[in-house]
Specification:
Blueprint (H helix, E strand, L loop, with lengths): L12 H15 L8 H14 L5 H10 L6 H9 L10 H11 L13 E6 L5 H17 L7 E7 L2 H9 L1 E2 L9 H7 E4 L2 E4 L1 H4 L2 E5 L5 H6 L3 E6 L8 H14 E9 L13 E4 L4 E4 L14
Parallel strand pairs: 1-2, 1-7, 2-6, 7-8
Antiparallel strand pairs: 3-5, 4-5, 8-10, 9-10
Helix pairs in contact: 1-3, 2-4, 5-6
Bound molecules: S-adenosylmethionine.
C-alpha cells in the first residue's frame, strides 16, 4: 500500500443495499445485484476524493446531502449513462412530426405552440434534433402547415444541462446528422461546433428529476412527452411512477413516446396504444364524447 493513499474497503452487502436504496428512492435508478462491481468502481473515486474511510461513510454523506445538490449530484454523474447524439433513432423523431402532430386534437380552444417535453435529454442532442426537424418542416411545407413548437428539455444531471445550455459539441455527436443540416444549424467555435441562435431559441433546458412530481408539474402541460433511453434504467415501480407523472402532465389526446428498447408492456396504465406508420406511441385518452386523434387498440 502506498503511503498517504490508504486502500478503501470494498463495497459490502450492507453498504451496497443502503446506497442502492438511497439512490433509488431519489432517482429511480436501479442497480442489480450483479452490478455491484460497477457501482463500487464508479463510487470509489468519490470515496477517495472525499477522503472517507469507506462506503458506509459515503452512504452517510449521501444521507446528509438533504438538498440533493452536492454529493448526490456527484453520485448521479458517476453512475449514469449520458450517451446520445444528433438524429439518434431518427425514424421515431420523424414520426413525431409526420404522424403524431396531425393526430393531436385540433385545439381550436387552445392558443400557442405545440409543447413537447424531452425528458432525460442528456447534453441536448435529442431536443435540438427535434427542433431541426421542426424548422426543416416549416421551411419545406410552409409556415402555416406546421405549427410552432416549444421544446422543454430536462435531465436529472445538472452537469449535462449546463453542457446542453452551452451547446458546444465534439465530432462524435454529429455522426448521424446529414452534413447539409450541420452546415445550416451549427457553427465552428473554439473547442467544437455550436448551435446557431435560430436553433438555440427553439429549446429551453431545465434541471428536473422525472420522479419529482411537483417539479414535473411546474413545467406545465405538454402535447408530447418524449422519454427515450431513460426508463431502461428504472425498475417496474419507478417506471410506474414516471409514467403516471407523464400521464398527468400530458394534455388530453397527447402522446408519450419511448425509446425503441422500451415499452409499457409490464406497466398497466390509462394510456392507449397508437400504431404509427413506424413504431408505437401511447396516447392519453380524450374525455368521453370528444373525437380522438389516435387509433384505439
Ligand atoms: C442514455 S441518456 C438518453 C439521452 C436521450 N434521451 C437519447 O435517447 O439520446 C439517459 C439520460 O437520462 C437521465 N436520467 C436518468 N434518470 C433520470 C431521472 N430520474 N430524471 C431525469 N433524467 C434522468 C440521465 O442523466 C441521462 O442523461
Amino acid at each position: 500500500m502506498r503511503r498517504g493513499a490508504p486502500e478503501s474497503p470494498p463495497l459490502g452487502d450492507d453498504e451496497y443495499r443502503l446506497i442502492r436504496n438511497t439512490l433509488y428512492a431519489q432517482t429511480g435508478l436501479t442497480f442489480r445485484d450483479d452490478q455491484r462491481a460497477y457501482v463500487e468502481r464508479r463510487l470509489l473515486t468519490r470515496v477517495r476524493a472525499l477522503g472517507l474511510t469507506g462506503f458506509r461513510a459515503y452512504h452517510l454523506r449521501l444521507l446528509t446531502d438533504t438538498a440533493r445538490e452536492n454529493e448526490f449530484q456527484e453520485a448521479v454523474e458517476a453512475l449514469t449513462n449520458h450517451e446520445t447524439y444528433f438524429f439518434r433513432e431518427i425514424t421515431q423523431l420523424r414520426a413525431l412530426i409526420d404522424d403524431v402532430l396531425p393526430r393531436l386534437p385540433k385545439a381550436g380552444m387552445r392558443q400557442g405552440p405545440v409543447r413537447i417535453l424531452s425528458a432525460g435529454c442528456s447534453t441536448g442532442e435529442e431536443p435540438f434534433s427535434l427542433a431541426i426537424l421542426f424548422l426543416e418542416a416549416r421551411r419545406s411545407a410552409g409556415r402555416t402547415l406546421v405549427p410552432l413548437c416549444e421544446i422543454v428539455a430536462t435531465d436529472l444531471s445538472r452537469r449535462v444541462i449546463e453542457r446542453a445550455r452551452r451547446g458546444v459539441y465534439g465530432d462524435s455527436a454529429f455522426r448521424s446528422l446529414p452534413i447539409a443540416l450541420k452546415d445550416r444549424y451549427f457553427r465552428p467555435v473554439e473547442g467544437g461546433t455550436t448551435v446557431t441562435a435560430e436553433l438555440r431559441a427553439q429549446v429551453r433546458f431545465a434541471h428536473a428529476n422525472i420522479l419529482d412530481r411537483a417539479r414535473m408539474e411546474a413545467l406545465g402541460s405538454f402535447d408530447v412527452v418524449l422519454c427515450r433511453n431513460v426508463l431502461i434504467y428504472f425498475d417496474r415501480d419507478a417506471k410506474i411512477r414516471a409514467v403516471s407523472d407523464f400521464f398527468d402532465i400530458l394534455r388530453p389526446g397527447g402522446f408519450l413516446m419511448l425509446g425503441h428498447a422500451e415499452s409499457l408492456l409490464s406497466v398497466s396504465t390509462e394510456f392507449r396504444v397508437a400504431q404509427l406508420a413506424s413504431g408505437l406511441a401511447y396516447q392519453k385518452p380524450l374525455p368521453t364524447g370528444e373525437a380522438g386523434g389516435g387509433s384505439r387498440l
